[in-house]
Amino acid sequence: MPALTYLRLDPIGVPPYSARGITEDFSLDGSSQLARTINNEAIDLGDDEESKFKLTITCTDQNMPALDGVRRGMVLTVDCATEFSYPTSGGSPSRSVASTTDDPATRTEGAFTFYRPRLTMLVADYRLSFDEWGADCNWSLDLVEV
For the whole model, what pTM was predicted? Predict the structure, then answer.
């Protein structure tokens, strides 16, 4: 059976019919401390560390994801379905490139290279719900980059 999603979660896997139509929401998780100077100019007082991501994956499908036994703080390797991009000339990916799928994880279009990132993340939380009459399995997984 062909893969139904680009998403990969290692070591737990992604069961068939549990992640079609997923949504991946990224936000920055860092030490940015935005402030204004006396001249009302915006500045960042945070350190210059590499920005890390928070990721929330949500989905409604026919099956539940393989979250049995998953706990807060568990490390997951996530091959994202979302594509990041950078200028092909002089640019490079800021994260590792997903490489465990049969589908290519990179492509070039015009002056940009698109790639699906591989992120090492910690489980922050997850939620499961089930609509019996609608036969919908609803779930979300909150992750923070290591």
Answer: 0.86
CATH of domain 8-82+116-145: 2.40.30
* 3-class SS of residue 87: strand
Distance CA(25)–CA(22), nearest Å, equals 10
Which residues are CB-contacts of 143 (< 8 A; sequence separation ≥ 6)? 54, 55, 56, 57, 76, 78, 119, 121, 122, 123, 124
Domain boundaries, the chain: 8-82+116-145
Strands 106-109, 136-145: pairing is unpaired
DSSP annotation string for 27-59? EEES---EEE-TT--EEE-S--PPPEEEEEEEE
Report the C-alpha gap between 70 and 138 in whole angstroms: 17
Residue 29, classified by CB atoms within 10 Å of its CB into exposed (0-12), middle (13-18) or buried (19+), is middle
Q: What is the residue-level pLDDT of the chain in tens, covering all 146 positions?
A: 556 899 999 999 999 999 998 999 999 886 667 889 899 998 887 766 668 999 999 999 999 999 999 999 999 999 999 999 999 999 999 999 997 656 678 999 999 999 999 999 999 999 999 999 999 999 999 999 99
